[in-house]
Design goal:
globular; 170 residues; 3 helices; alpha/beta; two-stranded antiparallel sheet; six-stranded parallel beta sheet; single chain
Length: 170
């Protein structure tokens, strides 16, 4: 089960990205950052992620809401990724069993930064469905994990540097 969401304020190191017409965009007055951190929430990596840097866009996943914080304890993430289904499967062995727990769903509903999801989530205007069909056609037929999706998106977004932290790729 996911932990309860600790109170937070947004870090001033966030780039201020927002959703417009179903796309994640920069505010007009903000210079584009060319480095992205993809943080897989591995505990041992928490201390090396540049949460206090204005050079990076930070992406993180799932239920890292209490850990994705800058040195002052403020929420530090520019784009969240939740690539697990939000609603129960209609068929199969897990038919009608919830995939997400109450805190996961609370976060998807209240996430204050853009959040890529697998399905529309109208309760949060920051939710954007990640276009898996587009990426499957352009790059490969399938993606085996969220990190593969994130790397594909980082390539698509033309980041000059992609920094990976806290990923177990065994």
């Amino acid at each position: 089960m996911s932990p309860p969401i600790r109170p937070y304020t947004l870090s001033p190191h966030n780039a201020g990205l927002y959703v417009r017409d179903g796309q994640i965009v920069y505010p007009d007055h903000v210079a584009r950052r060319h480095k992205v951190v993809i943080w897989g929430f591995g505990a041992e990596s928490r201390w090396v992620v540049p949460f206090d840097s204005d050079e990076f866009i930070v992406w993180t996943i799932n239920n890292a809401w209490n850990a994705s914080r800058d040195s002052q304890g403020r929420l530090r993430c520019d784009v969240w990724w939740e690539q697990h289904s939000l609603t129960p499967d209609a068929t199969g062995l897990d038919r009608n069993r919830p995939i997400q727990d109450q805190y996961d769903l609370e976060w998807v509903t209240t996430c204050p930064v853009p959040i890529y999801t697998t399905e529309p989530w109208p309760a949060n205007p920051n939710a954007v469905v990640w276009p898996i069909d587009y990426f499957a056609q352009k790059y490969r037929d399938y993606f085996t994990c969220s990190f593969a999706m994130m790397v594909a998106q980082a390539i698509e977004d033309n980041f000059r540097e992609i920094h990976l932290f806290g990923l177990t790729l065994l």
